Amino acid sequence: MDVIGSLLEGFATAATPTNLAYALLGVLLGTAVGVLPGLGPAMTVALLLPVTYALEPTSAFIMFAGIYYGGMFGGSTTSILLNTPGESSSVVTAIEGNKMAKSGRAAQALATAAVGSFVAGTIGTALLVLCAPIVVGFAVSLGSPSYFAIMVLALVAVTAVLGSSRVRGFSALGLGLALGLVGMDPVTGQQRLTFDQPLLVDGLDVVIVAVAIFAVGEALWVAAHLRRTAAHVIPVGRPWMGREDWSRSWRPWLRGTAYGFPFGAMPAGGAEIPTFLSYVTEKRFARKPEEFGHGAIEGVAGPEAANNASAAGTLVPMLSLGLPVNATAAVMLAAFTQYGIQPGPLLFDREPQLVWALIASLFIGNVLLLLVNLPLAPAWTKLLQLPRPYLYAGILFFATLGAYSVNLQAFDLGILMVLGLLGFAMRRCGVPVLPLVIGLILGPRVEEQLRTSLQLSGGEVSGLFNEPVAIVVYALIALLLAWPLLAKLLPGRSPARAGAAAEGAPAEPDDERELVSSERSR
């Protein structure tokens, strides 16, 4: 009953005219960046972090949540109309969605994606309301050794499943942990990795690092690979669905939600795996399996529902444990730090108004997405014709302006340039950038829990293993690291990507294949 009362109070806060305006703004911005290939909600939130310093935290996070949900929604538009996913989680949608568009059913494909996003997002947010307080109640009972082990699991899990090479993933994680050490030791007061530069004593500002890695690095990478001419867009009328379309879509929506939420809530679960599993499931249970590969509506409805349900799932570990499992959650966690709010299990007790208003705004954002984006679908297709040089020049301009506005120091612009080039080089070498950002954010907290655990045990390493939860988590870490070897020993095992190729994954245009590859690596 306390949960229901807190949620109602959250609705009272989120439904104020000011917060409703920020929710609408976030939904529109998120859909816009989701529609544009190469952009994403993580980059948009990173760009807006410096701008939101003057905003009240609740309003800022309501806008960020709208951007997150809107970005997941908008990625389906380019998948369906251009066969070029705007987000890596929308890759599977392109398999059937683009075939529907080419056969003259673009309106139906966009409609089932929109309604499926609404259904899955609403159910996923309801599950978030039920699960997050339970996870918080469990987390507050944990000691430092268990919490340290859980954070190590998050770091290892996110790193191990990204990119084509674990070596590259752990290299990125090492860079992030090293950047997190820059500044003053919180215990001894000794300077670390400052190179006698006084402006580095307080450490690297997470906002500047996020803007550099996501916005500057991605803008340089995409601008270096995409063509200058506008892409050919399949025309679309007002999205609508007939009775048969509704009949064939509602079951995939529910099954996709069942796949997406638990995978999103797991460390490094992401949306790619549940969208693929949803597609395979719908192909197996379809009444007309012969349509798969030629534009089956079930192949759009299920993966899109899984995609948006996973977005709600990722907020469970972020709000209850302070652990980000994807790029957007990592940047939102940086925003908590920006406002001086300590993320973790005590967040629900210390900032209940913010947390429940944020959760309530997710319900409101889902309704806004459906009401706003169905009529505006033709307008979003025109956005795809925006000249790319102007787009990425604007991104670089606002990134520079935002980084300078953090501390009004020209030194920060040098940091922005160096880390932006680092982000570009990482994409060029196929190194995922998400482990770096998560390592930077979680690194100081991991160090704090490690030191606390060792202090409690008098410096004995055995103090890290003196709680049952910690032992179980370390066993999971060992299994995760050893899984590639075990998978090779098991007969008949094949990677999911090979399965995706066998299912007829869409071929990407030559000049945009690099872009989608970089999106997948994130």
Automatic annotation (TrEMBL):
Residues 20-438 form the DUF112 domain. Pfam families: TctA (PF01970). The chain crosses the membrane at residues 20-40, 60-82, 109-140, 146-163, 170-187, 207-224, 321-341, 353-377, 389-407, 413-443, 464-486. Residues 497-507 have a biased composition (Low complexity). Residues 497-522 are annotated as: Disordered. It comes from the Bacteria. Keywords: Membrane, Transmembrane, Transmembrane helix. PANTHER family: TRICARBOXYLIC TRANSPORT PROTEIN. This is Putative tricarboxylic transport membrane protein.
